Amino acid sequence: MRLVLLGDDNCVFLKTVGALGAGVTAVSVVCARARAARRPRFTCKMWVNLETPPAAVANCGKEDVVLVDMQMRSSSSPGAVVAAGEPTFLTVPPMYLVPAAGDGASMEVPLHIRIDKLSPWSDALV
């Protein structure tokens, strides 16, 4: 599954989701550019919180989280990007998936994404 995200400054990002096996899901994000940058221009933090039963929240107030904080690479051919083929990706165990809204048979990843621009950056510095 692929999803196009548009940044505040009109940068285009592609989120890819794929299966790793044994019910584990891989999620990655790349910056789509006509000319792929040699150096990372963005960082990406992705995380998923495990839904905690109310009784457990009352006891300790802590949540289980899977998280990745990565330097995002650019791609001039984002359609060819596969999440598990990226240098860094978020690994989501099956227990973190939740039923899709309106469809009890499908599962989805309740994903949080934060993309930050690295500053300063320049391809000329490579």
Mean pLDDT: 81
Number of domains: 1
Fold-level CATH name: Immunoglobulin-like
What structural class do the secondary elements suggest? Answer: mainly beta
Binned strand content: over 45%
User: What does the radius of gyration come to?
Assistant: 16 Å
The N- and C-terminal alpha carbons lie at a distance of 33 Å
* Low-confidence segments: none
Apparent shape:
globular
- Describe the biggest sheet? 5 strands, mixed
Number of helices: 1
Query: Helix coverage percent of residues?
Result: under 10%
List how many beta strands DSSP finds: 10
Query: CATH first level: which class?
Result: Mainly Beta
Order of helices and strands: EEEEHEEEEEE
Please give the CATH architecture: Sandwich
Question: What brief labels describe this structure?
Answer:
Immunoglobulin-like, 126 residues, 5-stranded mixed sheet, 1 helix, 3-stranded antiparallel sheet, mainly beta, globular
Structure overview:
With about 130 residues, the protein is mainly beta. It has one domain: Immunoglobulin-like. It contains 1 helix and 10 strands; from the N terminus they run ββββαββββββ. The model has no long low-confidence stretch (mean pLDDT about 80). Keywords: Membrane, Transmembrane, Transmembrane helix. This is Response regulatory domain-containing protein.
